[in-house]
């Protein structure tokens, strides 16, 4: 396993539409393992393959249960290959989202409260499940990456420009340090 560099906006690769995975093999499983290691190191709760420069329809999520005092968080790694939303609730929810590709920037994004998703796991087995709450938000956020969409694209033009200006300022400060 290896920690891969995470692509950050405004890198144009983040606007790439990812291609479907034809089959699950050892090379794909290595990518998945690397994605988990990269996500945990960042740290984050979700990562799409395009964020590490691989334009394939693969994403990983781990919402992790909080740790007992002094202990490690309880991990619950989930892999989604070729995910597709096959249903969504009419009810909406708002979460303050952030993104490893838009570092240290957060904004409220409204999305369906629950979604029914169909996908393959790391062994190629098919699944379909109704996801709710933070997991529903996270899968929608990560699936946006597969279409070349960032969470800031869901914001008003003014809010998006503010986030991008803060990001640029932060990048300049890091380069100067």
Architecture overview:
The chain has three helices and seven strands, in the order H-E-E-E-E-E-E-E-H-H. The longest helix is centred in the C-terminal third of the chain and has 20 residues, at 157-176. The two termini are 30 Å apart. By secondary structure, it is α+β, with helices and mostly antiparallel strands. 26% of the residues are buried. The chain is globular. It has helices spanning 26-41, 133-146, 157-176, and strands at 46-48, 58-61, 78-88, 92-99, 102-112, 114-120, 126-132. The strands form two sheets. It has a five-stranded antiparallel beta sheet, with helices on both faces.
Concise overview:
The chain is α+β, with helices and mostly antiparallel strands.
Key terms for this structure?
177 residues, 5-stranded antiparallel sheet, two-stranded antiparallel ribbon, single chain, 3 helices, alpha+beta
Strand line-up across the major sheet? 1-2-3-6-7
Order of helices and strands: HEEEEEEEHH
Flag low-confidence runs.
none
Instruction: Kindly report how far apart the N and C termini lie.
Output: 30 Å
Tell me, rounded to a whole number, the average pLDDT: 94
How many DSSP E strands?
A: 7
Helix percentage range: 25-40%
What composes the largest sheet? 5 strands, antiparallel
Overall SS class: alpha+beta
Percent of residues in beta strands: 25-35%
Put simply, the count of helices is: 3
- Given the C-alpha coordinates, what overall shape results? globular
Radius of gyration, in angstroms, nearest whole number: 16 Å
């Amino acid at each position: 396993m290896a920690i891969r560099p995470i692509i950050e906006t405004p890198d144009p690769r983040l606007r790439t539409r990812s291609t479907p995975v034809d089959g699950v093999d050892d090379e794909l499983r290595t990518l998945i393992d690397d994605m988990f290691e990269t996500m945990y190191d960042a740290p984050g709760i979700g990562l799409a393959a395009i964020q590490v420069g691989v334009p394939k329809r693969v994403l990983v999520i781990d919402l992790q249960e909080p740790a007992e005092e002094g202990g490690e968080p309880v991990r619950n790694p989930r892999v989604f290959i070729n995910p597709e939303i096959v249903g969504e609730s009419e009810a909406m929810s708002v979460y303050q989202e952030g993104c490893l590709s838009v570092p240290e920037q957060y904004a409220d994004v409204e999305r369906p409260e629950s979604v029914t998703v169909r996908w393959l796991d790391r062994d190629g087995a098919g699944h379909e499940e109704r996801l709710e709450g933070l997991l529903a938000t996270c899968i929608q956020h990560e699936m946006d990456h597969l279409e070349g969409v960032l969470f800031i694209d869901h914001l008003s033009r003014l809010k998006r420009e503010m986030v991008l200006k803060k990001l640029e300022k932060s990048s300049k400060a890091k380069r100067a340090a």
